[in-house]
Amino acid sequence: MYIPEVGDYVIWDRPNGDIESGWVYFKGDPVDNGRRSKEGWKPISQYITIETGVREKPECYYTSGKPMRHKMIHTLLLCNRDCWNQLRYVKNRRTNTEVGMYKSQEGRYEDTQ
């Protein structure tokens, strides 16, 4: 089974026929559900978020008068580990060899083929 990583471009073929695609934006840590259930907590799933859209944020300021730090609004889709078998890997952007590619935030990886 494919294990997604931050910076991978994936296509999610969902069982209902919907097809979603985008960059893996976040990957949660593995969860110890054995320990959670012993402590009386409900089990949860590890997940990733897939960035399906990005747009510019309107110019605004904090109540303190300082300008906003983040310049973009990211639309993210949550994908639980149970659904990772429905993901198809396309490419990644973990190397910085390409110049001039889309980069949503300072410190984010650039696109690569």
Name its key features:
113 residues; mainly beta; five-stranded antiparallel sheet; 1 helix; 5 strands; 5% helix
Please provide a written account of the structure:
This protein is mainly β. 5% of the residues lie in helices and 35% in strands. It has 1 helix and 5 strands; from the N terminus they run E-E-H-E-E-E. It has one helix spanning 33-38; strands at 8-13, 19-27, 47-56, 72-80, 87-92. Strands 4-3-2-1-5 form a 5-stranded antiparallel beta sheet, with no helix packed on it. Strand 1 and strand 2 (19-27) form a beta hairpin. The two termini are 22 Å apart. The relative contact order is 0.26. The mean pLDDT is 84.
Instruction: Give unreliable regions as ranges.
Output: none
Helix content: under 10%
Return the string of H and E elements.
EEHEEE
Query: What structural class do the secondary elements suggest?
Result: mainly beta
How big a fraction of the residues is strand? 35-45%
Number of strands: 5
Number of helices: 1
The neighbouring-strand order within the major sheet is 4-3-2-1-5
Integer average pLDDT: 84
Task: Name the shape in a single word.
Answer: extended
Cα distance, first to last residue?
22 Å
